[in-house]
């Protein structure tokens, strides 16, 4: 595996499922916690964050995640977080990433929508110039906050429409958050040219994936691992080319899957379901995109060629334009040929 790890480290990659606040490094989180000491339960010691980021179930993960969200209190915090994430991606040879942003969580805490968008856009431009990483945005409804949050998310997306915005999503807990209630929001976003990428089938069964397809017009599915329980659903995903954004370590850490050995990724691939490999909230799960590729190599028995195909699958499933996709696919092929 040592040689494969070296190959993965140098492999040009695209990341399609990674959350903005969930990508804050332990150092960034600790600095923000120290800055806001007395008004947060988040530890200001990076060494203690590993224990703080140990989750009992998905609901506990959401609670911890929101406590970190609460540390992001002004536009400067947002800019720094975004640029630092780009640096972490660049160090892994990620060339393109679709970062899931939840503007509502910042807006409801008093940061104006315009300031939020201006901060992430400036960081995006600087990251492209300084680091060679192209970022794009998915504006994500926090499902637990309901229709009011969906209204704010849609309004921000359509009225401000930052240049990097490519898609519209739905995150947060799945249990008790029916997907169909957001159908009108997704219809409006899609009518405006945004792509539909809701989370579904992570901590619930296949029914939320069916709902995401039938009511939200999903073009990709965040997680979607419960599809492995439903042969008819896997057939539909395969036939329609609906890609699942799979995040193996995340699924274990949130207790959505008992262990990596029991992860349904091999079942999905064996049934022809298109998949990409992603990191979700990497520091919270003590992982990286490079590590997730190593996990996938182990679960799927991939060699260097197979890993290159996995990377190309992410590029092809991305919302890059076709010329940019060809450039990145060619770079991956060149890298493989040089080995």
Please give a quick description of this structure.
The chain has 339 residues and is of the alpha/beta class. The chain has 16 helices and 9 strands.
Give keywords.
single chain, four-stranded parallel sheet, 9 strands, five-stranded parallel sheet, globular, alpha/beta, 16 helices, 339 residues
Determine the N-to-C terminus distance: 15 Å
Most strands sheet = 5 strands, parallel
Strand content is 5-15%
Q: Which of globular, elongated, flat, extended, rod-shaped describes the shape?
A: globular
Give, in order, the helices and strands. Answer: HEHHHHEHHEHEHEEHEHEHHEHHH
Strand order of the largest sheet: 1-2-3-4-5
Structural class, by secondary structure, is: alpha/beta
Number of helices, where a helix is a run of at least 4 consecutive DSSP H or I residues: 16
User: Helical residue percent?
Assistant: 40-55%
Strand tally: 9
Radius of gyration computed on alpha carbons: 19 Å
State the low-pLDDT regions, or none. Answer: none
Q: How much is the average pLDDT?
A: 95
